[in-house]
Design goal:
MetI-like fold; three-stranded antiparallel beta sheet; five-stranded antiparallel beta sheet; Beta-Lactamase; alpha+beta
């Protein structure tokens, strides 16, 4: 006997395929799931294939002790990256390795010295404020100069400049006359038109009048901002408008980038490294698998529980339905998050505990829909006919009523998946989800909050969450439109 879908099911499937946004979102989720299931073949610190002394080894699928390759008697897991750099795997030898696309596992911490950085430095040029001092004697001549005197056009032995501000001239005269004088800080112009700051320190009378008075001159910068340029540390080439080191009036500093975790994206780590030096791309990929598997398993568990309980209430009705609803109302009032925290503190955080606790609280919504469907179907003629024919209750439920009650189950499945993935990310972000160091999008987002400069820890997990959840919503919208009983009759 050839098996085939019911004509109504084929029609619904055809309508779903016609809704392109939902159809392609459905395939996006399938492809994402398939890629995540192959995570070990895409991101791993173990090679896919090792050819050594005429023998083939596949470390991804089988464990090999270090003694197999190094002949040192060690039975621990070998460091394949160190082996690849050893003389046994030199380019001219017959031994070689085939590595996955990303040569990092989700739990492997990179060493700072292994991060290959370009030989570049950042040169910062800051405008230099020029300062000079002029000692004015009682004869009206400059006795001594210090600092950037040439910049201000003052020289020792030159006469006191009459164009200086009156406050400075009066301050100099008062100090030479041994009078108490306050500090002076005033802006004025030199003979060449340059605007500078003139300063005099406060003065108290002494037993002997001073022979000279010091005037300080400071250049008034128009506050140009610091300028930075990244150049080759060995052969620097500066832009034409950039002041090269040694240019008068500028202070230069050179800074070479250091590896400090979390670290920005580089050649072998295209999505960067987290706070422990682990490759973000590898953790993103493994987190995708964790999220999708958690969501699918949770959806299957909640759909099964909700369907069984809702179907039993709707089919039996009466007291079974009454007492069942009271139990659900009491159970629904229990705080899920507090129960999860309590059990996690007692038994420890784990994937199974999180899945189980969430499943026993998440079935209630599905049970409401299935109960309503079975309450409606139990009064229809085909159910009455089945009872008259003497069919047992389980055949009536599973062969006749359940297929007609699956519309809410199918349409809510993608939305339940989206909710499960979002809940897992939120719990991981708060620290109540999967135990560390399990790869998780929420854990990466928590690191991003701790290290605000590490933009890659926030951007890539957020984009992954957005893409997966958006695809789930579009898929759910497509299924809901294809199965909508208001637009398409169940008996068409």
């Amino acid at each position: 006997m050839k098996w085939s879908f019911h004509p109504v099911t084929r029609q619904r499937w055809a309508r779903f395929r016609a809704l392109r946004r939902g159809w392609w979102s459905f395939w996006f989720l399938l492809v994402a799931l398939g890629i995540s299931l192959l995570a070990e073949w895409i991101a791993n610190d173990k090679p896919l294939w090792v050819r050594f002394e005429g023998h083939n080894y596949f470390p991804v699928v089988k464990f090999y002790p270090e003694d197999v390759f190094a002949k040192n008697g060690r039975l621990t897991r070998p460091d394949y990256k160190a082996l690849a750099a050893s003389a046994a795997f030199a380019p001219d030898s017959a031994n070689w390795m085939v590595w996955p696309l990303i040569r990092s596992g989700p739990l492997e911490s990179a060493r700072p010295e292994d991060i290959q950085l370009p030989d570049t430095v950042t040169v910062t040029a800051m405008p230099q404020t020029r300062v000079a001092a002029a000692d004015v004697g009682g004869d009206g001549f400059v006795a001594r100069v210090a600092g950037d005197a040439d910049f201000f056009g003052i020289r020792a032995g030159a006469p006191f400049v009459a164009s200086w501000p009156e406050e400075i001239a009066a301050g100099v005269a008062g100090r030479l006359g041994n009078e108490a004088m306050p500090a002076v800080d005033v802006q004025g112009a030199l003979a060449n038109g340059r605007v500078v700051w003139f300063s005099l320190s406060p003065y108290q009378p002494r037993s002997t009048p001073p022979a000279r008075v010091r005037v300080t001159l400071r250049d008034v910068l128009e506050a140009p901002p610091p300028r930075r340029v990244v150049v080759d540390g060995q052969n620097p080439v500066y832009p034409a408008d950039f002041p090269t080191p040694g240019t008068p009036g500028w202070i230069f500093s050179t800074e070479k980038e250091e590896v400090r975790f979390p670290f920005r994206p580089v050649a072998r780590h295209p999505l960067g490294l987290d706070s422990s030096g682990r490759d973000v791309a590898a953790r993103m990929l493994y987190a995708l698998r964790t999220s999708l598997l958690f969501g699918l398993l949770l959806v299957l568990a909640t759909m099964l529980l909700g369907t069984v309980i809702g179907a039993a209430q709707g089919y039996a009705a009466g007291r079974v339905d009454l007492f069942g609803q009271r139990f659900i109302e009491i159970w629904e009032s229990l705080p899920f998050i507090y129960v999860l925290i309590l059990l996690g503190a007692v038994y420890g955080q784990s994937f199974g505990l999180l899945l189980g606790v969430y499943a026993i609280f998440n079935w209630i919504g599905i049970s409401y829909y299935m109960r309503a469907e079975f309450l409606r179907l139990r009064h229809l003629p085909f159910v009455a006919a089945a009872r008259v024919m003497g069919l047992p209750a389980h055949k009536i439920i599973f062969r006749h009523m359940l297929p007609n009650a699956l519309v809410p189950l199918v349409t809510f499945l993608p939305f339940s998946l989206v909710g499960a993935i979002g809940t897992l990310a939120a719990l991981d972000y708060l620290g109540f989800g999967l135990p560390p160091p399990t790869p998780s999008w929420g854990e990466l987002l928590a690191q991003a909050q701790e290290f605000p400069r590490a933009w890659w820890l926030a951007l890539y997990p957020a984009l992954a969450l957005f893409a997966v959840m958006l695809a789930g919503v579009f898929t759910g919208e497509g299924l809901r439109a294809a199965f909508d009983p208001r637009a398409y009759s169940r008996w068409e």
